[in-house]
Specification:
The chain is α+β, with helices and mostly antiparallel strands. Helices cover 53% and strands 12% of the residues. A hairpin with a 3-residue loop joins strand 11 and strand 12. The structure holds protoporphyrin IX containing FE and 2-acetamido-2-deoxy-beta-D-glucopyranose (NAG) (3 copies). The site of protoporphyrin IX containing FE has 21 residues, from helix 14 and helix 20.
Length: 513
């Protein structure tokens, strides 16, 4: 029962509460004004009310652009319309800053790394990725990075024998009479086969099984992994509306993936317990025990099985579509310019028909330019974002010309478009939308080129990816004298977390004599 005497107290409390809120608001406002003045920040004058960037789209716009394959290009055009490479936007109540300025990206990823986290996006990916490296922030991320990093040392990454074995299986599916086929499909199979072997010492062998029935567990896993990946992307696109999404296909696929990987984790942890026992009882380890296996290295460092599984699934996600997309985008461009294939053949001729060693591979300059140029025009991770966890500042984007510093209030999502940055005419010249490997002859590396990210979270698999893509390209060059495009149209984007060619890479290859 309400006591009439308590009313004044309620009013006093409410009054105190309101004053407190006002007080904190005003102090916050004042301290922000001081911060803004101290950093010379000017407001960002370019704004766009619908959301422009991958994964953050207003549902409907996203669906339309996605179908047309024009998300990246539409975003790039916005920078031109604003005549500024930084603009702001808002989705419902979430403030966004979108940028394609090298200096801003360097600030987010490196100089002020500690001012940002991944933010909300972690929630959508958690059902598949758990707290693995790709989905963790702060201490947890640092710990994962520390755990995984040694596994990407050169010796492990340079297992060219494994690439050769899987390449030979791929070769079996390539018609040698010049008839049309889709290289992209084969590249996607090749990379899941090599990545699973690298991680689990057990390949999905999807190239070997291609013409067989698909009821074996490796094939079921490979398919489930694709479905699971699509499902978590949908979760991030739907955001809070995800709970209204119907169907259990995604959830089932995630379960299948976890169970499949759990088996290899169990084996690895068992192996480690056996090895420990052998050492304890003074028995010698066998040769096989000494061999390097990624999953076993993790089992040596932790016996937390879920942890090992999470990390492996994260690396598989990070490493599978990316390398395949680099290859298929690059071949799509090369097929359009026969002179490039001829130059590659000239360069590879110095190997005298032998398969390359790791050192030889690294010394093929034109091949490297071709890969750099593909990752420039078609960065396979074309857009990315971070979430400001405290008030901070970007060096560019403020004022009418976007050349003053810009205040970033805590809680802002800062998105960056590597795709748009890589095609800036002021950075790459008037021919910035042309595939031209020769431009790399005179370029120096800097923040305007960022296919693998930069700063503390730079891609761990860069060497692995470039070695695999380079090796496969050299071997195709050695096997085939001619390469012809069988797709008259332009390259069309197919965008998920990564971007590949919507129409595949349709080619005809003519065998070398
Ligand atoms: C052409 C191929 C590849 C490209 C363009 C690429 C690009 C990237 C990018 C842009 C990131 C940063 C993501 C972010 O912080 O938001 C990243 C992170 C990562 N990549 Fe790659 N990647 C490629 C291949 C690979 C491969 C083959 C592997 C492993 C075998 C791999 C493992 C990783 C890992 C573990 C991270 C997380 C690093 C961290 O957060 O500390 N990547 N990659
Ligand atoms: C890896 O797999 C191969 C083929 O299945 C097997 O012969 C080998 O013993 C395995 N090696 C290790 C270290 O697990
Ligand atoms: C070409 O790409 C490689 C790998 O991403 C990079 O290390 C190198 O710096 C690039 N070249 C230039 C000139 O940026
Ligand atoms: C390429 O893809 C686009 C969109 O998916 C489609 O409209 C077009 O017909 C395709 N072109 C070819 C040559 O298949």
């Amino acid at each position: 029962m309400a006591d009439t005497k308590s009313h004044p107290l309620v009013f006093i409390l409410a009054g105190a509460f309101v004053s407190y809120i006002l007080y904190t608001r005003i102090t916050l406002y004042r301290s922000r004004q001081r911060f803004i003045a101290a950093h010379n920040c000017k407001p960002c004058e370019h704004t766009f009310n619908k959301d422009p960037i991958l994964g953050l789209d207003v549902l409907r716009a996203s669906t339309i652009n996605h179908k047309k394959g024009t998300i990246l290009e539409a975003n790039r055009q916005r920078f031109f319309r604003f005549k500024s490479y930084t603009f702001r936007s808002r989705v419902i109540t979430q403030p966004l800053i979108i940028t394609a300025e090298p200096e801003n990206i360097k600030t987010i990823l490196s100089l002020k790394f500690k001012d940002y986290s991944f933010g909300q996006r972690k929630v959508s990916f958690k059902p598949l990725l758990g707290d693995g490296i790709f989905n963790a922030d702060g201490e947890r991320w640092a710990n994962s990075r520390h755990l995984l990093r040694p596994n990407f040392a050169r010796e492990q990454v340079a297992d060219l024998d494994a690439f050769e074995r899987h390449f030979k299986l791929m070769l079996k599916h390539i018609p040698r009479d010049g008839s049309t086929f889709d290289l992209q499909e084969l590249f996607f199979r090749l990379t899941i086969d090599t990545a699973t072997e690298f991680l689990f010492n057990h390949s999905t062998n999807s190239l070997r099984m291609m013409d067989q029935d698909d009821s074996n567990e490796d094939t079921i896993f490979a398919k489930a992994f694709t479905v699971a990946q699509a499902d978590v992307i949908k979760r991030s696109r739907y955001g809070v509306f995800n709970m209204f999404r119907k169907g259990s296909e995604g959830r089932d696929a995630i379960r299948i993936c976890h169970e499949y990987v759990d088996k290899w984790v169990d084996d690895a942890v068992q192996w480690r317990e056996d090895a420990d026992a052998k050492i304890k009882s003074g028995k010698a380890l066998e040769k096989d025990d000494e061999r390097y296996v990624f999953i076993r290295e993790l089992a040596k460092q932790t016996n937390d099985k879920q942890r090992i599984r999470d990390e492996l699934i994260n690396i598989l996600l990070a490493g599978r579509d990316t390398t395949a997309s680099l290859l298929s985008n690059m071949f799509f461009e090369i097929t359009k310019q026969p002179a490039i294939w001829a130059k590659l053949r000239d360069e590879v001729a110095q190997l005298g028909g032998r398969t390359p060693t790791y050192e030889e591979l690294r010394n093929l300059k034109y091949l490297k330019w071709c890969m750099n140029e593909s990752l420039r025009m078609h960065p396979v991770v074309p857009a990315n974002s971070r979430f400001a966890i405290r008030d901070t500042v970007l060096p560019l984007g403020g004022g009418p010309s976007g050349t003053s510093p810009l205040f970033v209030p805590r809680g802002t999502i800062v998105g960056y478009s590597t795709y748009s940055m890589h095609r800036r005419p002021d950075l790459y010249g008037a021919d910035s939308t042309t595939y031209k490997p020769e431009r790399w002859e005179s370029r120096r590396p800097g923040w305007e080129y960022l296919p693998f990210n930069g700063g503390p979270r730079i891609c761990l698999g860069q060497q692995y990816a470039l070695t695999e893509a380079g090796y496969v390209t050299v071997r195709l060059v050695q096997e085939f004298a001619t390469l012809e495009s069988r797709d008259a149209g332009p390259w069309v984007e197919s965008l998920t977390l990564t971007v590949c060619s919507a129409n595949g890479t349709k080619v005809g290859l003519g065998a070398a004599s």
